[in-house]
Amino acid sequence: MFRKRNSDHGSATSEYSSPLYEISALMDKLDDLVDTSMMTFIDSIIHTISISEDDSNNNINEGGLTPTRGTAILNSLRKYRFRTTVDDDDITTTTPTTTPTKTAPTKKAPTSTDSDKTKTPTSTPTKTFRFGSVPKNKDARFVPMNDAETACFVETVRRISELVVIGESCAATIQTEESKLDNILRKLKNKKNNNEKLNDDDDDVDNNCGKDVDIQREEWEEQCVRIREKISDNNEYARVYEHFFERNGLAMIADVLTGKAYNISNFLDNRKRIVQTEIDGYNNDDVEEEDKNDNKQKRDRSESILKYLESIHETKTYTDIVLVPPLAVATQGFQSTSILVQNVKRATSLFFILSNNHINQLIDFPLEEYHIAERKKLEGISGTTPSLMSPRRFGSPELGELTTTFVSFLKSLAMRMNAETLQFFLTYPSGTTIESDMDYLEESNHEQNDHNDDDDDDDERPLDEIVSNVEKKYNIQVNRPVSVKTIQVEFPLYERALEFCSVHQDSFVRVTAMNICLNTLRLATVAPKIGDEEPAEVVVHLEAAMGASPDAVLHNAKPLPMRERLAIAQYVCTPSRVERLAAPLFSKLAQLWGVLEEQFRDMEIANKSSSSEPKTRNNPNEKVARTREIARQQKYTRIFNDTSYNVQDELLLLEDVLKVGLTSLNEQVIEMMFATFVYPLLLQPLLLYFQRSPVTAEVLFADTLNDHSLGQDINQSDATATEKAVISAPAKSALFCLSAAFQFLTNPPLLRLLFTAVFHPLSPDASGETMIRAKADVACMGPDGKATIRIDKVDENGVMVSESDRTTYIFGTITGRKDISGRRDSQPINDMCTFVLSPALSEILEFSGQDGGIVARSRHNPYRKAIFQCFTLNKEVSDLQALAVMAVYSAVSVFNEKFLADLLFGLDIKRYRDNLPRDERFNAFRENSNLDDDDDDHDDRGIGGSTISKVDSRLSLGALEGGKVGFDYMNEVIVSFESCIMNAVPGGKGAWKLDYDSLAAHALLSSIRGSSEAIVHASKAIETRCRQSAAFLADAPSTIDKFDSEKLQSELKYLVPVNNGKCEKNDLYYGAIMDMIVRKREDSVFTEVKSALDHMLYLTKDLSNKEGDVSIYIPVTSVGSYNDVAARSITYSSLEQDASQAAFSNAVESTSALLKLDAFGSLLNGLVNSKQMLQDQKLGGFIFNRSIDPIIPNPTDGDTIFSPISDDFDNAMFGVDRNDSSFVGIKTGSVMNLVGKVAFPCVCEVPPSMAPLFSKEGAKVVSQGITWQSLYLVIIDQHLVLAEPERRSRGEGRVVTICKLENLALEKDPDDARVDTSARRLILICESPDLKSPGMFRFEKKPQPKQIGPFSHVERWKSSLDIWFEDSNALQIALCKVDEGIAKAKANRGDFIRRYLSQP
């Protein structure tokens, strides 16, 4: 990090003669700066005392003290500032030298303070570290320093650390080079001896061999020269490091940072001793008379000084003051120390730094004193009254920087912590020795014979008496928790890091402190590999440690000895420390939950307010209003996203804690999470929403797809927007955080228990809960018969491995004691883990249909009922449905199909019911609706207490029909999904639209794929929903006609009734509107709305391998992410638009939604036929194909499932009406009778490629190389036919081209387009998704479908045909007829679609 200042290593800098002298002078300067600041402080106290005396005593005798600073006495006091040594007979003073001399530096004689430092033991003393305990009324102040002195102090400390790091690096280089030199010299010596031996044995040595030996020796000698030069270059700086520690430089910096260097009492004692020595020197009688008078004046002055010093020393107000250096000095001090710790290269250097107590002194850094001093400083500047704020809560930018630097210093220490250095951080009490693994086991206080005598006190005894601890090792079950001896240790670094994990700390500080704690936890989880011996206790000898220092890796994978791992595990798993580690995470999550609640409330109120404001389309300020609305939405979105990212960060920190894998720690964290976060903030708000909702149940649970009129007047009801926002905001925050928890947390036991708490049909009974109290079970019996640390088992990918899907942690149920709520405590709860929720949920999770007692002890799960009822809420009055879907999706996407089927559909309860005798099944079903008021199933209390009224049956959160055993849980789930997958939602201006939720479809697919019965039920439910949605869409044309009747009737003028039949007019009229909905034109004003065709895809391989009709695929489900959670949380009303435009755009979107639902129904029908198709397969992205191989992988899109639409829907969109027989038998090349049909003669150009379509003897004319063919344009039903007239006069024609009228558009030449001929041209434009043009039509350019992975996008390809008529009159007649036919054909197609949608 640091480099030497001069390229010439042998020369010193321009300011100092050598680096050694520079480091010595800089350390002298530190002492001088400390003395200067202390004297300035004493001066200020003397000044305060002097001005408080009586006016008569203000002027002392000659040379006396005056109230102003700088008088003779103060000057006399200052002259002692730099005294360092005192002898009985002589006084030696040393003043700081600003210009260094050329002499070598002399070692500074130690003062009393230095003497104390030199006596500091090298081993870490036994000490109890207590952080953050600031005595009340403590007076801390900054030592007085001006800006120049502060800057000088900062630069001095910085330069000292720079020199020390460079010196240590040079010393390491010298050590390495000396080792190389020693090896080379040894080789030279061995070579010389070998040569002498060879010369003695054989006088006729080969000359070439001798030359090779000489060359090798010369190379080695050159290497020795280079190495010696390198050693010489680094030798000057290498002495700096040793001199720094000889002068106790680290102790000096530590004393300055902790304020020990500014101890007022010690400073006054030293000064009084110096002054007293001076007074004794003035009492010498062997001087001349003139000198006696002078000595008398000096003695009087010194006695006055001594009196003031004694007065200050005796005043508790002054001596109790704690002085600390300025914040800039403290910040630089920790930065320099961190750099020193991080950059040492030799293990000996690191061990020497850590072996003294100075690092622990810095770990015990009194940060609170700096807070007090900064607050007093700011209060003195502003003149305000003292603040009542806690020192920990007070802050400033400078304090924030100091805190950040200090935590970074702690991290630098943690980076150096491994098996060799752990002894410097972990302190054992004296006499702690454990010689073998059996010594770890703790003998039980209960004798086995006594267990049978205390049957009446079962609840007061351990759930599983620890008799195994007194048995032989081979009788103890593997992985069974065992009670071990407690090893008392002190861990100052971890303890101090916990302090900065608190919730009020800066985010950077919290994360850094958490990293320190996590890497400390990991030290206990790295065990020896199977077959390896247990590491012995590491003993480091500083003199023998010649290797490199530990690298800057936060966690060294080298395992620690069992004693150290056990000690660390016991230390960090102590409940009080686990609480300090994990509680801030849940407190922060609770704060963010509250922030989310407030933001949800603000967004909903603002959204309701903006939507209720009257707006008109012709408002001149409409553009400004829309711009403001967009800006408002972006503002709320940005703020909300910031909060969601903070939630993500906290959950990831929690995930890091759980991933450490320390089982005992995870048990406590999970219990704490359920008690402080899950139940009160994620589950209870769901019940509160239904309890407090002011909307009637009829409106709240209205199925808007079938009847969307119930909620239209909700804005005029008694429930205001503000009231509804206050009620729904907590539920939204709960669903958001629940989704995020399943998204980011991966600990299997936690996720299983969380899923059980939310979705299992049973819930723990809230009354009389059993508490389990146990010590932290940090150890278990390993497979080798030795005690080992309880660690989560993981595979090679780091994923936790469990015995089964129902397995969780033990939660103290083996070594703990039961305690029923309300009973007396059997023993003190200090350092005892208390488990309530987790064991109860584990018991329900492990229920597989055998133990009926669990059913009796449990109750209906109201949270499951609440979250599934959120699926059925009316979207006009509540927008909880989207977040509820996201929460359920996030949960079901974690588990396999069997786990989901058993818990979601209550299959375990069903198995239990089937095993009951028939006479008991009836009682278990409890079909009688007249339930007693005392029935426990009415109780909708959460574990935290009562939250909902028993009589509020309208929300169905009370007892379920059929009881806990007889209720149809499968139907509950599927019906709820049916409501939310497709629903009708408000679309603005009183219009409604269909809304398809692909995420809900994916969640349903994940839930049912493990149960054949559920697949069948879901298929039937979606089929029913398709019919309801189709009926809704069939009414869309009449809705559009209500808003824009005049314009539509003008556009559809050709749709006149036949025989004045009103019914037929309506069918054609509404059919034309339906066609406009399905075929949204490119010139439509709704460019942002996608039509049904925009969602359609072809399989590219089907286009090339199959002629004719191909399947049309639609994306039906999609995988969600955390971004989707935020997107579903932010809902805004659509920007204002015209009523007719709103109705039309809603109908277009509804068509696309119905298309997706139809394709999803096709997928479920395929599952019915092949129920094992999706089992044991990850539900990502694939293509469902109605073929032998139904699953086609989609490598380009792993998040979306594609499915073909049904054949009936495909035929309604693109096929022919099978009931229409008027066009049967007409095809290209066939001969048709033209008699009685309206035929328009025309001429068209025949290119050579089209010649095969015509007969050779046809009516052709060749002019200027162009072939012209006479044709008849005939309209037959829904088709346009071009027929070649037969030569024989039979009134027949040969069909050349057939085109559907519904695909045609017309263009004509202007009347004045040509003056050279009377003929006029009509351009027929065909827009069709077919890749083959009809007959004589030619593409403008060859169709190139847009590729989307394995798919090709369905598009309307344009082909055209030019036909010529005799004159403009003939053109106009044909144009009107064809235009009318096109309009009727489109109307018939739309009517065909409407009839398909309307069928029951």
From TrEMBL:
Cellular component terms (Gene Ontology): Golgi apparatus; late endosome
Keywords of this entry: Autophagy, Coiled coil
Protein's name according to its UniProt entry: FPL domain-containing protein
Domain FPL as annotated: residue spans: 317-427
Domain of life, source organism: Eukaryota
Region entry Disordered, spans: 88-133, 443-462
Biased segments, Acidic residues type: 452-462
InterPro entries: CLEC16A/TT9 (IPR039272), CLEC16A/TT9_N (IPR019155)
Higher taxonomy: Eukaryota, Sar, Stramenopiles, Ochrophyta, Bacillariophyta
Coiled coil: 174-208
Residue spans of biased composition, Low complexity class: 92-113
Biological process according to GO: autophagy; endosomal transport; regulation of autophagosome maturation; vacuolar transport
